[in-house]
Design brief:
It contains eleven helices and twelve strands. By secondary structure, the chain is an alpha/beta fold. The strands form three sheets. Strands 2-1-3-4-5 form a five-stranded parallel sheet, sandwiched between helices. A five-stranded mixed sheet has the order 7-8-6-11-12, sandwiched between helices. Strand 7 and strand 8 form a beta hairpin. The longest helix is centred in the middle third of the chain and has 20 residues. The radius of gyration is 23 Å and the shape is elongated. About 2% of the residues have low confidence. The chain binds 3'-deoxy-guanosine-5'-triphosphate and magnesium ion (MG) (4 copies). One magnesium ion binds next to strand 6. This is Response regulator.
């Protein structure tokens, strides 16, 4: 569990993770301490084109879960050698139900569909699974058609749940979802000793846009701005809408200096855009931003946000349309 993992590896995992909604491939994490079961599942599921992560060593469960963020979790009930979520009590033997319960109590995994696989078919065991928060329960030996149908159904369910994590006007993550993602990346950045910067962006004098061109036009600008944000950052960056015309970007592996460069590039793009109002008049929009950096400006999301927000305020005072760090 302590083994250091190459930063590039982590970055690749994050990158995949955050782009799930744009990815055709669904990611399935399958945990079973019996490698033979994993092999069978692989044979059934691989031809379907799923991205499979097979884990027969429950010791690595929490690490793998956090790094891959699967679309579906398939869990064995009886697992041997699974540690608690913080990895402290090494002798604690958790079974699949225990894992399921811990996952369900963590808001970060609220939307993750969980499917149990067990040789135990008695109703008491099945009931225990659902009480632990499972979404479905399948019996061993595995019946292929049954498995494939259930997997597909649970993936659809997960996709629908995730829709609620997006801001409908701008298409970026909503506040809750982006807070969870950033918190997770912050934990990772601390563990991997990687830089992390947080930017708070606020559109300049947006009230005027509404007042002059109408609220509907304001909405269109916000929608465009959301798209520009999504396009401007790497797959592994977290973009969230935190307020009316306020957005947050969390950048893993990026120093404050590089963060400024990225946001500046985006501001330069926005400066060139001409919006056309209904009466045909053209107008432009800018934003101001403040950026903070892990450790130096704060060690958790709250302090980093406060620091970036204070800097944003300075940018507004100094005349807006600028980025300060
Ligand atoms: P500043 O440069 O100081 O940030 O000025 P501002 O006008 O942008 O700031 P202020 O906080 O005074 O106003 C924010 C405006 O953003 C007010 C509100 O009408 C508008 N706004 C917030 N959410 C939405 C939205 O979803 N749609 C539209 N059209 N406007 C919104
Ligand atoms: Mg087992
Ligand atoms: Mg304001
Ligand atoms: Mg504003
Ligand atoms: Mg504002």
């Amino acid at each position: 569990l302590q083994k250091p993992i190459a930063p590039s590896q982590v970055l690749a995992a994050i990158s995949q993770t955050l782009q799930q909604s744009h990815q055709a491939l669904s990611k399935l994490l399958i945990v079973d301490d019996d490698p033979q079961i994993l092999k069978i599942l692989q044979n059934f599921l691989e031809p379907e084109g799923y991205d499979l992560i097979l884990l027969d060593n429950p010791l690595r469960f929490w690490e793998i879960l956090e790094q891959t963020v699967p679309d579906l979790l398939i869990l064995d009930v009886e697992l041997h050698g699974c540690p608690t979520s913080n990895g402290t009590s090494q002798n604690a033997e958790l079974n699949g139900f225990d894992l399921c319960q811990i996952i369900r109590n963590d808001p970060q995994w609220h939307n993750l569909p969980i499917l149990f696989l067990s040789a135990h078919t008695d109703s008491e065991t099945v009931l225990q699974g659902f009480e632990a928060g499972a979404d479905d329960f399948l019996h061993k030996p595995i019946v292929p058609t049954n498995l494939l149908i259930r997997v597909r159904k649970r993936l659809e369910q997960g996709k629908m749940r995730r829709q609620t994590e997006l801001d409908s006007l701008t298409g970026v993550s909503n506040r809750g979802k982006s807070m969870q993602d950033i918190t997770r990346l912050l934990r990772l950045a601390v563990r991997q000793q990687q830089p992390f910067s947080l930017a708070v962006l606020d559109l300049d004098q947006f009230k005027l846009v509404n007042d002059r061109y109408g609220h509907e036009m304001g909405d269109r600008v916000l929608n465009y701005f959301g798209q520009l944000l999504s396009q401007s950052f790497r797959r592994e960056d977290v973009v969230g809408r935190w307020g009316g015309e306020e957005f947050v970007v969390g950048m893993y592996g990026i120093s404050k200096e590089n963060g400024v460069k990225r946001i500046t590039k985006m501001l330069n793009t926005l400066r060139k855009i001409k919006f056309t109002a209904r009466d045909g008049s053209e107008f432009q929009v800018t934003f101001s931003a403040g950026i903070s950096q892990l450790i130096e400006d704060g060690e958790d999301l709250q302090t980093l946000y406060r620091s970036a927000d204070r800097t944003l305020y300075q940018a507004k005072i100094q005349g807006r349309n600028r980025i300060l760090a």
